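1st attempt posting a full record on here, be nice pls
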Amino acid sequence: MDRDPDPTESGARLPEPLDLFADEPLPSKPADTAPVEASPMPLALEAPPPTEPPTPGGWPEDSQRHPLPDRAVGAHRIANMVFAGPASLVVCAVWVLHSLDIFALGLDDLVVTLIGSVLILFFLWRALHWPAVTHRHRAWRLTPEVLDIWEGVLFRRVISVPRTRVQHTEVASGPIQRSHDLATLSVYTAGEELGEIALHGLEVRTADAIRDSLLNREEDHVV
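the predicted structure (as tokens):
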């Protein structure tokens, strides 16, 4: 019986077994591939520099109305609460004395209670809400000829102070105004019905600048 020839006997070479676990080389990067450049990160927007208050030598050339700073409302509220607080306590004390028949008002208890409640609500409303109402109608303007001041809610008026009649000025600030960096500019005039005109709630730098501009009559500054 014939058998299959042995390949080793005939000198034939067997194929090498495949190594399935051999590490294959990674594909090389083409030489002509350009490197990817990282895009620069966008720069953060810088905040604009704070605006400086006007100085005597740097008034704007156009004449315009200038409102008072918003923090003047807070200072006005605190000043009103100095009066509204004690006044409300007095109303409460009178109501208690009347209820105990120590200080009789000759009125019914319900009427006294209603009157006291209305007074307390009025004091609080005037202290907390009224400053914001008056703030919207107050403004000022300085021209080469006059200082104009707008004020009033129900009865509005414009006070015009000629620069030629200004005798002297004064910048003052109390404890409440100093805590808010505010001041009051008082202008004293000659030959006018209003001998003293006060502008409350100005920034300290602005009040000083207006005072210097009013007293420096050789230069014309327009605000």
